[in-house]
Design brief:
This protein is of the alpha+beta class.
Length: 991
């Protein structure tokens, strides 16, 4: 902690926030669980001391995911657990150096998807059987600023007062295989059906006999348009057309009527992936200045468009052509644009830092945003500022601050250095190494102190190449879609009167606050709660842009994942790329330049007072000039805001801004529920269908890679391993091998269940058949003392949702092991009424009879059952060892694991000690008390420790080795009771 410096008499104060909950330190050897969770980092084994600490990292249970439920059961009795969250990693190998693609990761828009038979197949809702593939489409219309609005002119999309419309992107629409999307319009090619007259076509709204076009008609009053889904099988409940409006105040606004469920893309014929909302008072739909006068038919004008990429589906990407269907990337983290300093001599300022979500995948995006405030300059020293982590959908009037970091600085030597205060350490599994070199990497110096983000410091700050008086004064333009030039398809048409191309589709300007006052004219009032920068509320009135309104859903689309893994060619989206040149076709890549999206406090025009500083009383008239062209005006006393204005303490409460977090991708297939949720069904399908990758399939690989991490002693210390819900041999057998290689952990195994027609159970409507399940398991011929299998599924209580959830047996059994270790010891059997009772279980999916119990135990499957008057209980403790041995029982295997670990820990303390008799005697003297304690607690009947010169020879000494032998006779458990009841004659002697 830096010392306070006193230069004159006075009182100096500072704030140290220690109010956060203190995590409980883990105690003992944890159980390891692999699974999915609602949030948290992926592929990094994290150990915690309580279930509360688990939920702080990985989120609450949601009534669906089995891993967190298993952790909850274990942590009821234990004070140490380890969890690995899995997400999509494709084939688990490094990405292609030329394309950036990760094989089998994510998805490709328009490719065949998994059908009800579990195999990739033709879209059953499509008439197309010739291999037509769906595309990514960009929906929009020509628009111009409404009266009083400057939404486009501020962004440089049209001149002030100009009535020329521009093609504005309003939605990103994905089509499934077999479906081609078009718009209905006035200007079409020849009709498909003969005998259709122009009059009939006009009266039918141009739908009859038409396939539609890339451009289409928009009703100028209602803003309605019609999207045609060619190839889609229609019915009364599923029409082949969608009538919608670009007017966001209309009930049939396209974002309200288009399908937004990825799992229904084939059923509905399309998916609205994202949309950009523009209130009618801000911009109007018009073809003014672009469309030839008199082109209307009725009140309809062909100013809508629905464009795809300029090349065929799957064609190689180039700098001039983007593959908009390619989402083939592993999981990513959401991050902010780089926060920048005031200008100094560098246009746009210096890059200072950016914030990156600790949560991997989608859970890290659209969850929170960043605000920076309380900028405190310092003369000839580092300045200070506050960083707030806020809920994504809060408002400035009603902030919900999740976390605050007060008085941080860019001074690496300070205890309040932002890297130290928030944490700059990034712990991750490096998938982009060669497979044999992949491992967990720790990058950065300072461990994370934030619950939500880590900070990534720019090189110029690390190298101290930034002036010490630098303050966070803005941020780079957020990432934007690559559609603004000639990267989209273009339909040759004489409709357009100018050289304006419909393919130059522009994403709407990033929403920013233009002033911090409310009301108009003489009724304006200052609102000190408002932040500059990103404006989350929808602007509905250009004259009063801060009028209370609903959340701007556009922010959600801006925060969504759009691919950027293509590095050598033009990617789908670009950002943090200041200064990069435009493409030849006019595509603007520079995210700062694009729509003037770069934010800076220096773009605020303020009024100065008599002291030449910005007048605190005049912030009511401060205006954000998006273009930044602010020329000092001595007459009106206006100029741009400067860091020097912060010398007035009263100005500091106004100099604050908000920036977004963008991206965050799970790396899974959003069109397949099982692949998206990484379920056992997805594993089975990948192994059954060679086209889905088999062992390189994305779900199989996701779990096997996590097993690799958990199987590494250097990465995780565990005594048990569970992968709740993973039943397929491709994962389960791999986990058995991993614990065998570790030699210090057991695998609690869920088995594949079969129904009454001997099919593997893949849905809740199938009921388990005990004998078929047993026979199938026997055929696997598993042989290991390091694994134990259980049956059947159980119903447990979800502590968060309050729901009853049917789970695989490993969820509750893990709790039984934890309870066993509290009331007994690792070498006691986690079975029976005293230590195997499952108090958390509400019901069993199968009621077992005596024959079932015998069949299961004979197959080395430990049954879970209930007897009259008792609760549900684990009724067996067999390992999967085939030979008759003491190690065919769980308590014996766990005894050896426990003793080995304790002896190993002692041996570690003797490393590098002199290899002589005194060391051997010390080793033996340290081991004996451990085994004596185990014997006293009924773990072994007898033992013997031999660590002396008879076990360690001279050759061993010369090889720097100590050898010893430990003889154990485990205490056997009672599992069978045989009693003879003898009935005797009256008066006979009782023996």
């Amino acid at each position: 902690m830096a010392e306070l410096t006193f230069k004159s008499a006075g009182v100096s104060t500072r704030e140290i926030d220690l109010s956060g909950p203190t995590p409980q330190s883990p105690q003992g050897v944890p159980a390891g669980v692999i699974g999915t969770s609602v949030e948290g980092p992926a592929y990094v084994p994290l150990t915690f001391g309580s279930f509360t600490d688990f939920t702080t990292i990985f989120g609450l249970t949601d009534g669906k995911k089995f891993g967190p439920l298993a952790v909850n059961e274990w942590m009821k009795s234990s004070k140490a657990g380890t969890f690995i969250r899995i997400l999509g990693i494709g084939d688990g190998k490094k990405r292609d150096a030329s394309t950036g693609i990760v094989t089998n990761a994510g998805f490709v828009v328009g490719e065949e998807t998994v059908q009800t038979n579990g195999r990739l197949g033709v879209n059953p809702h499509s008439n197309e059987t010739n291999g037509v593939k769906g595309r990514t489409y960009f929906l929009g219309t020509y628009m111009s600023e409404s009266n009083g609005s400057t939404i486009f002119s501020d962004a440089g999309l049209q001149n002030v007062g100009e009535n020329k419309s521009r093609p504005i992107l309003r939605g990103v629409v994905l089509a499934p295989s077999g479906v081609i999307l078009h718009l209905s319009g006035n200007n079409m090619a020849e009709p498909d059906a003969p005998g259709i007259t122009d009059t009939a076509i006009a009266s039918a709204g141009n739908l009859m006999g038409r396939k539609g076009g890339l451009t289409g008609s928009v009703d100028l009053s209602s803003q309605e348009f019609v999207m045609l889904m060619n190839g889609f099988k229609g019915s009364a409940s599923k029409p082949t057309i969608v009538t919608a409006s670009f007017d966001m105040t209309s009930p049939n606004y396209f974002a309200n009527v288009f399908n937004r469920d990825p799992l229904k893309i084939e059923e509905k014929g399309h998916l609205l992936y994202g949309h950009y909302d523009i209130y009618p008072s801000m911009a109007k739909v018009t073809g003014s200045g672009v469309v030839t006068a008199g082109s209307e038919i009725g009140n309809k004008l062909d100013i809508g468009f629905l464009l795809s990429g300029s090349q065929a589906h799957g064609a190689a990407s180039t700098v001039e052509h983007v593959d908009f269907e390619d989402f083939q990337d592993r999981f990513t983290h959401a991050e902010s644009p780089f926060v920048t300093s005031q200008g100094f001599d560098s246009p746009g300022g210096y890059d200072l830092f950016k914030l990156v979500a600790l949560d991997s995948g989608e859970s890290g995006g659209q969850k929170y945003k960043i605000s920076i405030e309380n900028l405190v300059p310092s003369n000839n020293d580092y300045s200070r500022f506050d960083v707030l982590i806020r809920e994504f959908n809060d408002t400035d009037e009603e902030r919900r601050v999740l976390e605050s970091h007060r008085g941080v600085t860019l001074d690496p030597g300070s205890d309040r250095y932002i890297g130290r205060s928030i944490g700059d350490q990034h712990i991750f599994f490096n998938f982009d190494n060669d497979t044999e070199s992949q491992k967990i990497i720790v990058d950065g110096v300072h461990p994370s102190r934030s619950r939500y983000v880590r900070v990534e410091i720019s090189d110029v700050v690390k190298k101290k190449e930034v002036p010490v008086e630098a303050l966070p004064f803005g941020y780079r333009g957020p990432s934007h879609l690559n559609t603004s030039g000639s990267l989209l398809s273009n339909e040759a048409d004489t409709l357009y009167a100018t050289s304006m191309q419909v393919q130059s589709v522009v994403e709407p300007p990033f929403p920013k606050r233009s002033r911090i006052s409310t009301g108009v004219a003489l009724n304006k009032t200052i609102n000190t709660r408002l932040y500059w920068g990103m404006q989350s509320a929808q602007v509905t009135d250009p004259a009063d842009p801060n009028k209370r309104s609903a959340f701007n859903e556009t922010i959600k689309t801006i925060g969504k994942h759009f691919p950027n893994h293509r590095k050598t060619v033009s990617p789908f989206t670009v950002g943090n790329n200041a200064g990069v040149a435009d493409l030849a076709g006019g595509t603007v890549l520079d995210s700062d330049k694009f729509n003037n999206n770069r934010f800076s406090l220096e773009k605020i025009k303020v009024i100065t007072g008599s002291d030449t500083l910005a007048a605190p009383s005049k912030w009511i008239d401060a205006v954000y000039e998006r273009k930044g062209n602010i020329v000092a005006d001595e007459t009106n006393k206006t100029r741009k805001f400067k860091a020097a204005d912060l010398a007035s303490v009263s100005n500091r409460k106004f100099a604050k801004f908000t920036l977004p977090m963008q991206g965050g991708f799970d790396g899974t297939n959003i069109f397949d529920k099982d692949k998206y949720e990484l379920t056992n069904n997805a594993v089975k399908r990948e192994m059954d269908d060679a086209n889905q990758g088999e062992l390189s399939g994305p779900t199989v690989t996701a779990y096997r890679k996590a097993v690799d991490v958990m199987g590494s002693k250097s990465d995780a210390e565990i005594q048990l391993l569970a992968i709740p819900g993973m039943r397929h041999p491709s994962v389960a057998d791999y986990a058995i091998s991993a614990v065998e290689n570790r030699f210090d952990a057991m695998y609690i195994m869920d088995i594949e269940e079969r129904d009454n027609v001997n099919s593997v159970i893949t849905s809740s409507v199938q009921n388990p058949h005990v004998l078929y399940t047993v026979n199938d398991f026997k055929n696997r011929a598993l042989d290991s003392s390091f694994a134990a299998a259980y049956f059947p599924d159980l119903t447990v209580f979800d502590p968060n949702t309050g729901a009853l959830v049917q789970t695989p047996p490993s969820v509750a059994v893990l709790g039984a092991y934890g309870n066993n270790d509290v009331v007994g010891h690792p070498w006691t059997a986690p079975a029976g009424f005293s230590r195997g009772a499952l108090s958390a279980v509400e019901a069993s999916s199968v009621l077992l009879n005596r024959t079932n119990l015998d069949d299961l135990y004979d197959a080395d499957i430990n049954p879970i059952t209930a007897f009259p008057g008792t609760g549900i209980t684990v009724w067996g403790q067999k390992t999967l060892l085939q030979s008759s041995s003491a190690l065919d029982r769980i308590n014996v295997r766990r005894l050896l694991i426990d003793v080995r670990r304790k002896v190993r820990n002692i041996a570690n303390t003797l490393l590098f000690e002199p290899n002589r008799s005194e060391t051997l005697e010390k080793f033996a003297s340290l081991v004996n008390p451990i085994l004596q304690r185990v014997q006293n607690q009924s773990g072994v009947d007898r033992y013997k420790v031999v660590i002396d010169t008879t076990t360690t020879t001279q050759a061993d000494v010369e090889n720097n080795t100590i050898r010893g032998k430990i003889f154990l006779q485990p205490t056997r458990t009672v599992e069978f009771v045989a009693l003879d009841f003898v009935v005797s004659n009256a008066g006979s002697e009782l023996l």
